[in-house]
Amino acid sequence: MKMNRRNFVAKAGLSAAAVGISPALTLSSCSTPAKSEELEEDGQALFIGDDIAVAQTKYGKVKGYIMNGVFTFMGIPYAANASGKNRFMPPKEPEPWSEVRPAVYPGNSAPQDIYDRKPENYYSFVDHWNYDEVSEDCLRLNVWTPGLEDRKNRPVLVWLHGGGFSKGNGLEQDGYHGENFSKYGDAVFCSINHRLGPIGFSDFSAVGGEEYKHSGNVGMLDVVAALKWINQNIENFGGDPNNVTVMGQSGGGAKVCIVAAMPEAKGLVHKAVALSGSDVKGVDKAYSQELGRYILKEANLSPLQIDQLQELPWKDYLDLANRAVRKMEKEKGGSGMRRGGFGPVADGLHLPAGQFYADASAASPNVPMLLCTTFHEWAPGRTEPELEDITLSRVIDKLKSTYGDKTAEIVSAYDKNFPGRKPIEIWSLIVSNRQAVVKTANAKLKQDAPVYMAWFGWSSPLFNLRMRSFHCLDISFWFLNTDRMVTHTGGGARPRKLAIKMAHALLNFMHKGDPNGADLPNWPQYTLEKGETMVLNDECKVEYDPDKEARQKLS
């Protein structure tokens, strides 16, 4: 995206004071210049060279580049290569280096089966997943910052990518990019890659002995290792190690909830933001340990030979582990997980054995939390235009396999709760229901840190309006990337106006654990009694448990 500071401020109507931009850096005019004037005023955007963007880390110096006034570092190792003998093991510190290390390209994605990116797939156009190399040398992070070693103590945001616990990387969508948010919020933005799926969550604690007791949670221990790296190094990148907000969407939102329950994260994270994904408990330990036995059996190995699993090529191990999942599900039933059997384990060591946030225990971070979902996370008609004219009776038919005899009652309740909505929208609201996020918010209330709730209702104008407020759409708004992620938003002034409000609220939350003080209406804390919810749309407003009557019929 080619957009200089003056143009962004002019187009967005962005107040420098609202996002903490120094008055000395503001421009005297916010009018959009004529095209010839704009060309004259545009200067060099990219700076890279021998002594440009060099930062010191605990392990050695790294050299990135400056883009649009933001220092950018890509692919910095926060832990060692996780292949070979390090597979299934907790992350180890990287080896120090003596030369200045280039940090100009994102690190490898964790081993996974990547999304379909065929050119004739509309999802490829909409999301255009950013993937390159895939390997176990994936424990890397990216940093965007407005300044280095200037002791400004900027708030730090750490982005945890989506994709459940089996897919994704820290830059898989353009909406994840940290440049705009860092620059206009005067904040440090970090994103990370970590181990996923069978590589990150194979639990061999029952068959591998003491050496393998952490194996079921190494993917989340990677996240903790990245947070430790940030704690130890981020001051050299202009950030405040005592003001770190962890934020994620979908599977990343679940990871945020898990981090907020991990004893190891206490003191490393100070606020939490979970979008369109949440968790209140880990994978049952008995299930994960049994799956570990099935994997060993599928490999025709005895417990004494378990180390041989570290020698398999990662693709072969993924295939082996996934075969074991299918066999176990066929013989003993599934885990009830949408993550394919592999996810953080409730081992009672790294993750509580029961429900998260059961009390305000000193064992967990106990931090302020902001939760948000979208109206139409899983809009059924996104790629099927014929569904726009579906009737309510057909919606009932479509949902009967999920809700059985209660289906008609549920559809009727949603239709009554949301009068004037098309049947396709009623269907979408039902399958995108807020039960999980409300359950998470209610659990978090057992601690004494504040909870804030949002519901994102802004609908994309693309594909004849069929995309609506779909899963992932809100990410680019929080990070001021609506023009960068144009295949989600359409770009232009309309999404940009809401993005400014949301980014301001996020920055306020990062600074003080409270989103108020921006351009939104007063945002009350969430309570069990009232269900206070900020509805984010072209016009933002607070509603009180807005889908309560309909949602209760799902129970």
Structure overview:
- The chain has 555 residues and is α/β, with parallel strands linked by helices.
- The chain folds into 2 domains: 5-275, Alpha/Beta hydrolase fold, catalytic domain (Rossmann fold, 3-Layer(aba) Sandwich), CATH 3.40.50; 369-552, Rossmann fold.
- It is 30% helix and 14% strand.
- The protein has 17 helices and 15 strands.
- It has helices spanning 5-12, 35-41, 122-127, 179-185, 197-201, 218-233, 251-259, 285-298, 314-332, 392-403, 407-417, 423-431, 435-444, 475-478, 486-489, 493-512, 548-552, and strands at 46-47, 54-57, 60-63, 65-67, 70-77, 101-102, 140-145, 154-160, 188-192, 239-249, 271-275, 369-374, 451-456, 532-536, 541-544.
- A 12-stranded mixed beta sheet has the order 1-4-5-7-9-8-10-11-12-13-14-15, sandwiched between helices. A 3-stranded mixed beta sheet has the order 2-3-6, with no helix packed on it.
- β4 (65-67) and β5 form a beta hairpin.
- The radius of gyration is 23 Å and the shape is globular.
Task: Please report which band the strand proportion falls in: under 5%, 5-15%, 15-25%, 25-35%, 35-45% or over 45%.
Answer: 5-15%
Number of strands: 15
CATH superfamily of the largest domain: Alpha/Beta hydrolase fold, catalytic domain
Shape: globular
Radius of gyration from CA coordinates:
23 Å
Distance N terminus to C terminus?
46 Å
Please report the first level of CATH classification, the CATH class of the largest domain.
Alpha Beta
- Give the low-confidence spans: 1-34
CATH topology of the largest domain: Rossmann fold
Provide the spatial order of strands within the biggest beta sheet: 1-4-5-7-9-8-10-11-12-13-14-15
Mean pLDDT: 90
Instruction: Give the proportion of residues in helices.
Output: 25-40%
Q: Tally the helices: what do you get?
A: 17
Structural class of the helices, strands and pairings? alpha/beta
**Architecture of the largest domain, according to CATH?**
3-Layer(aba) Sandwich
